[in-house]
Amino acid sequence: MNTENASLTVSGAPKKGKKYFSVSEANRALPYVSKIVREVIEGHAERKEMGHEIDRCQDEKDRDQLFTGYERLTDKLNDLLDELHQVGVELKDWEKGLIDFPAVHQGREICLCWHHGEQCVHAWHETDAGFAGRQDVSMLEPE
């Protein structure tokens, strides 16, 4: 077996070309990311309410207008999601504004975890652990 590229096939191994963040890089990105996340949270709540209004609306003309606004808001949310992807982060929860910053620790991919309202990135978790598996970033050994 050719072991030269064996680390690329190991589950959890960093992927070539993917953006990975250190804790300090993630914290430097937060002013921009948090602004987008705030817009996502607000837009998602507005779109959710609009969906309820559409469901309750009896007048077809009014429903069409509401649906046009709903589609416009959906497009805006998709644009915001694209911005987050361009930064290299993943939105995990539209209502809480939960974000994962991909990172590498001890040769494996992990996630630095932040959610709207936090002042800085102070938690991380394994890629398969999610929010419930959050641990303090102070536990990460510097590489």
Task: Give structural notes.
By secondary structure, the protein is α+β, with helices and mostly antiparallel strands. The chain has one domain. The chain is built from three helices and five strands, in the order αααβββββ. The protein has helices spanning 6-9, 23-56, 60-87; strands spanning 90-93, 98-105, 108-115, 123-126, 135-136. A five-stranded antiparallel beta sheet has the order 1-2-3-4-5. Helix 2 (23-56) runs antiparallel to helix 3 (60-87).
The domain tally reads: 1
Number of strands: 5
> End-to-end distance, in Å?
29 Å
Shape: elongated
Provide a compact summary of the structure:
With 143 residues, the chain is of the alpha+beta class. The protein is built from 3 helices and 5 strands.
List the helices and strands and how they pair.
Blueprint: H1 6-9, H2 23-56, H3 60-87, E1 90-93, E2 98-105, E3 108-115, E4 123-126, E5 135-136
Helix pairs in contact: 2-3
